[in-house]
DNA sequence: GTCTATAACACGATAGAC
DNA sequence: GTCTATCGTGTTATAGAC
């Protein structure tokens, strides 16, 4: 039988991931991590050099996971618009916030190049992927030629990250959904038809 | 002579405002506040019941100030588009983040209805103001009738709040500016003209 | 009104037994 | 590899002098 128990190091990383998401780096103490993981002080300092080292392992895993999940949606089927819509509408635990984005509000994370690196890398990778999709959409005529892929990608990502802020402020996911809806209405080719059958250079649809 | 020194209570509130912006609620200790304000423990507990009470005074002031500054720009001169552009482009210390929005990532702030209330009220007021401006723009024909004021307002605010996240992740304001630029290109009536002089119902410009 | 002293506990890390 | 004990410091608050 391969009934495998999870290693202590593994439980420490997972507990840290949960707490970083809930309380951030500054708000997460080694004591709280150890309690959640069911381990003693010694275990943590055996496997990791300290709190920053353990947090780094946790942040890297969370960042890699989010990146893979986002790219899976963005590389999925559909037109460029549909793939961006799928990304914007993908299932999210909105009130919990973004496990990666929230770290940018942590002074100790931003102050450390090592802790910030995975956060930056993940957001940047998603941004690049979206920018490529926008350029693809321009070539196919689904998006107007005046759109800048890099800029639109930043807008898309910012709308998501800012949506979390609005939702958490109001205690309801409604504002997140509204922001996404607004952005999609601005992006949607079909939503701005021309009159008298003339072609609109922006949408390139009749 | 009216050479007035600032009261101790005043210095405590201002020091707290600075620290809340820099380090958030969880990352700000009474000791750090007292050091910055040049006061002793007794002063703080004389004027306030404790850390949450002092933080509430600081948050209320910061929220009210931001709200006034934002509404001043939004109620300024110009067309609806121009006023939204002015809001999006208004001077910001991007890498410091939003002094109000960052509080939504603080678990203790979100957990307290009292601390969260001023944050929610300010973001909501700005959102409502932008929504009204969008509706105004629709009536004037500057924005297409398919746009929903509430949704667009959420998108505008989210782009700003999320722009801070992207900027802090990368350590550069560039991503914030890119997000704003992308959103403006989607909103701008002039950026999507029709061919052959036909009228586009979306932009209502030739 | 402001100060210092003190309390009780948490933080982050180390030491050394098992 | 994991445990408990301990360390020095910081946190949040109270007490009481001035």
Automatic annotation (TrEMBL), chains A, B:
Q: Does this entry carry the keyword DNA-binding?
A: yes
The HTH tetR-type domain is annotated at 6-66
SUPFAM superfamilies according to UniProt:
Homeodomain-like (SSF46689), Tetracyclin repressor-like, C-terminal domain (SSF48498)
Q: Which InterPro entries match?
A: Homeodomain-like_sf, HTH_TetR, Tet_transcr_reg_TetR-rel_C_sf, TetR_C
Q: Which residues form a coiled coil?
A: none
Tell me which UniProt keywords the record has, alphabetically.
DNA-binding, Transcription, Transcription regulation
Q: Is-annotated flag, keyword Ubl conjugation?
A: no
Pfam families the UniProt entry points to? TetR_C_13, TetR_N
User: In which residue ranges does the UniProt entry place its DNA-binding region annotation?
Assistant: 29-48
Q: What is this protein called?
A: TetR/AcrR family transcriptional regulator
Q: Identify the species of origin.
A: Streptomyces phaeoluteigriseus
